[in-house]
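Can't paste images in this forum, so I'm doing it all in text. The chain is below; anyone willing to post the predicted structure tokens underneath?
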Amino acid sequence: MNKLKTAKVISDITNPPILCIPLFLIMCIVLSFENGEFNMSKFIVLELISLVFSSILPMAIILGWAKKIGTDKDISNRTDRFVPLIVGITSYFIGFLVSYFIGLSNFLTILLLCYAVNTFIVMIITFKWKISVHTTGLSGPVGALILLLGPFGAIFGILYPILIWSRVLLKKHTLAQAICGAAQGFFLTIFEMYLFVDVLKLPLGEIISLEIATLFILAIIITPIILGFLSYLNVKKAKFVFYLLELILFVMFLAFTPMDVFIIFVLVSLTSILISYYAGEDFIWYEVLKK
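Text version of the structure:
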């Protein structure tokens, strides 16, 4: 029961419109510095745009729609999700247009467009499969923070295995749906950010390279993906196979990636292992680690 309560709290605070509040706040603070000085007026406008179009409007519609159809605020039934997703797409796109015509921040402008596109892709997938909006909602802003802050943004990737456990334990998603939600969200966000810079001719200034951003994302997702595959494949001596693969990855990340990428890999891997042991028999990853 305590684990269920913990999972419920984690699920509630990582609801995309809620999670984006602190993550967008960090982005808005960083984006408000000009020539080493903090521009309060710019911060207020950035924060207002991000709050209204990425949080307040989507959350209001989600809660209103859930109440109207008599379901939970997660809108667990896949076929009930299309109206909130369409509203989300519309909200993000309007936010993009407002930010674009104000010309306040190219980074926020492009990110809101990425949100609209990624939510549209999630909606298309939802016609056939209930991909996790929670983990997608985590990966979008974290991917943006990686581009903006490098390892300081990537540190939020520690939430990824914790959120996977939460959504699976609460039976809101299968393991595959939870893992894939963030994986596609991470890669779509960073690739689209670079794509739209060229298409819209909106330079972003100093952000980390696409190559390094990709390495950070691999460092975040690789251990949960391995645990997922071993869970589904029911491999004999899965624990030995897991730690052997982790050792190989440990050496590869240490040898071929920057130290901050290696550290993120270690932190997310340790978090994945610890959350598995904490979950115990209630979580499929634990079955891998006890064999």
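The chain has a mean pLDDT of 90. The first strand starts at residue 33 and ends at 34.
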